[in-house]
Design brief:
Number of strands: 21
CATH topology of the largest domain: Chloramphenicol Acetyltransferase
Structural class: alpha+beta
CATH superfamily of the largest domain: Chloramphenicol acetyltransferase-like domain
CATH class of the largest domain: Alpha Beta
Radius of gyration: 30 Å
């Protein structure tokens, strides 16, 4: 029996994905739940399993193809007996009485009816490529025509197809996003091709004139990151606040704690910050909000879902720890370690990356004493963490060595004023320096 395998609905709002690897070939025998291919969506890489055991009879996609949810991508024969379809019975009429249908040949000079006369190709498709200098738009003639009809410069549209190819949906998304920027409202495509096409680039020179070059296609994650930060940078008036926390007491406790626990339960500074930030969001609710320009309102969230930026070989991903404010630091440490490992192994699910209220980006393990993180819309704030180091601090009588942790808070100035940003960041510093403050206020 033949089973058609379709792209499943992997997450709410996700309408398509890109095939990044196919693990089987036509004729292969597969087991039930064996991975057939990997699909990369806006949020994660998803493995598509075989629903039954059997033989792969047909593969309808190739690596790099963009497919919609519900599209047929493969067929598997499960080996069950097929129902035989009887051959049609021969006519019981005598051979000499069997009707014969004769199709007359058309006269050589007889013209074809107008309905079936072939039309010149140029009337059906515009095959003239759109050029800018030496570049040709990576789009089909019909897509280029659609862009011209809508008044869109196709070179400003970000293609989501294989090799950056532009499809009709990319053009429509570009127009929609531009209209939303002009009108300041409307639903945004947060869970689909997020912020597609809101940034553009002038044509590049031919770098090969000056030496040897190579080209590396952008990964799906890198494309989405580029679009998201470009959108944020062009639409959000951001301010960054800086402060430092004294953390030698916290570090002494953390190191002592880690001597007594398993590797899975190791306590990291990031796990402590997740708890501290969740408590801070309760105390300063405007930092746990989203701005709705269309309705001229502020959406306040009564839950604390904290995203943690994780550096992976394929780009930056942000898994989300749900209800962080209701969990203890010990529980958060275990969950964060597990989530970070799943993210690096590309085993994270789309649901693990949804619903974030606030993000922590910790670069302390790499180095540096400050940086300016970019707010991830529709959130309104993000915390950057740099490398802690011993610094001389004046105590009123003398300088003494203290372990100082640099923190950077970027926020949306439309929602948060400078004074509120300074208070929020100072609250986090005090909570790190005096955990009893966290217990009393959190």
């Amino acid at each position: 029996m033949k089973h058609e395998i379709t792209v499943p609905e992997v997450s709410e709002g996700v309408t398509s994905g890109t095939i990044i690897s196919i693990n089987v070939a036509v004729g292969d025998q597969v087991e039930e739940d064996q991975t057939l291919l990997e699909l990369e969506t806006d949020k994660a890489v998803v493995e598509i399993p075989a629903p039954v055991a059997g033989e792969v009879s047909d593969i309808k996609v190739a690596e790099g193809d963009k497919v919609a949810i519900g599209a047929v991508i493969m067929s598997v024969e499960d080996g069950e007996a097929k129902v035989a379809i009887p051959e049609p019975l021969e006519s019981g009429l005598p051979k000499e009485l069997t009707p014969t249908i004769v199709i007359p040949e058309p006269e050589q000079n007889e013209p074809l009816p107008p309905s079936v006369q072939s039309k010149p190709v140029e009337q059906v498709l515009d095959l003239t490529p759109v050029r800018r200098d030496d570049q040709v738009a990576p789009a089909a003639p019909s897509v280029r025509r659609l862009a011209r009809d809508l008044g869109v410069d196709i070179y400003q549209v970000l293609g989501t197809g294989s090799g950056g190819r532009i499809c009709a949906e990319d053009v429509r998304l570009f127009v929609r996003d531009k209209m939303q920027q002009l009108t300041g409202g409307g639903a945004t495509s947060i869970t689909t091709d997020e912020f597609t096409g809101v940034y553009a680039q002038r044509p590049l020179p031919d770098f090969s004139k000056w030496g040897e070059i190579s080209t590396e296609p952008l990964s799906r994650i890198r494309k989405l990151t580029a679009a998201a930060v470009s959108y944020a940078w062009s639409t959000i008036p951001m301010v960054t606040q800086y402060d430092k926390a004294v953390i030698e007491g916290l570090e002494d406790f953390r190191k002592d704690y880690n001597y007594r626990v398993t590797a899975e339960a190791k306590l990291t500074l990031t796990a402590v910050l997740v708890k501290v930030c969740a408590a801070a969001l309760k105390t300063f609710p405007q930092f746990n909000s989203s701005l709705d320009l269309a309705r001229e309102a502020l959406i306040l969230k009564h839950y604390q879902h904290i995203g943690v930026a994780v550096d992976t070989a394929n780009g930056l991903l942000v898994p989300v720890i749900k209800d962080a404010g209701d969990k203890g630091i010990e529980e958060l440490a275990i969950e964060l370690n597990d989530l970070a490992e799943k993210t690096r192994q590309r085993k994270i699910s789309p649901a693990d990356m949804e619903g974030g209220c606030f993000i922590i980006s910790n670069l302390g393990g790499i180095g540096g004493d400050a940086f300016t993180p970019i707010v991830y819309a529709p959130q309104v704030a993000i915390l950057g963490v740099s490398q802690a180091e011993m610094q001389p601090v004046w105590n009123g009588r003398e300088f003494e060595p203290r372990l100082m942790l640099p923190l950077s808070l970027s926020y949306d100035h439309r929602v948060i004023d400078g004074a509120a940003g300074a208070r929020f960041l100072r609250w986090i510093c005090v909570a790190l320096e005096n955990p009893i403050h966290l217990a009393m206020k959190g």
